[in-house]
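Aim 2 progress update. The chain analyzed this quarter is reproduced below.
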Amino acid sequence: MGRYVVHRLLLAVPVLLGISVVVFLMLKLVPGDPAVALLGPQAEPRDIEMLRRAWGLDRPVHEQYLTWLGHALRGNLGLSLEQRVPVADLVLTRFKNTAILTLASVLFSLALGLTAGIVSATRPRSLFDRLTMVAALFANSMPAFWLGLVLIFVFSLRLGWFPVSGMYSIRGEGGLADLLHHLVLPAITLGGATTAIVARLTRSSMLEVIRQDYVRTARAKGLVERRVVLGHALRNALLPVVTVVGLQVGFLLGGAVLTETVFSWPGVGLQLYRAISTRDIPLIQGSVLLIAVTFVVINLVVDLLYALLDPRIRYA
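Predicted structure tokens:
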């Protein structure tokens, strides 16, 4: 297991370097000059040139990248052009809120998706199974922003059950209850498609495992059906689900941009949207880099969990 962990950690290094190159060059290809964006189109050419020289924008691209990478490795992602505060402080502060929203979405997806998938697999072709699969197909086809707007219209504006936006009530005292109240609709919006994927994958994986000989043997020994399903079949059926959920967490982080914008959730996604609107390039680079690195780390953790669940992976 130790060699497998070291091997996976070494493989993550070139991936992270590749991500840093893509993030840096991606914004270099965007038309426009950051110095002009900050000083304004009416600024004197001399002032623009001084700012470009101060930021190193007049140097070759590879020198700019190496300087940016060296600073990033030391936790220095530069200053926000608009807010004039360190990007690392802005991104890390907002990332906590995005992590809360993503975690809530994953928990919602696992709780509902696994339950629906297991019940559907144990009652194939029943009315519940058919309705669940139709609902899963519908949920997987809906754009997140459209689902969010529908939920706001029904449960906030019509029924008044949940707040329209924000993370806490402005006039409230805050606290966990207020946070959970604001979290329900964004978590459902962000996790809707993942719930559908987990439900469909769990159903198909469980149907395959339930037909295995060792499950028949467990039933022949007289074990109750609940113990056969949950104690013998579910562990092996979870292998592909774990992989997909790990990948989905990365997509949820990316999808948080739309969900946080719809619900005004103060996370990295909303901050990234505003940074793009104001052409705040250091803040865009920092936000995208953090999301990409988190995606790689989550996939690394999933690979390690996969090896723990299935020892054959370590020796493949």
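Residues 225-263 form the longest helix (39 residues). The radius of gyration is 24 Å. These observations will guide the mutagenesis experiments scheduled for the next reporting period.
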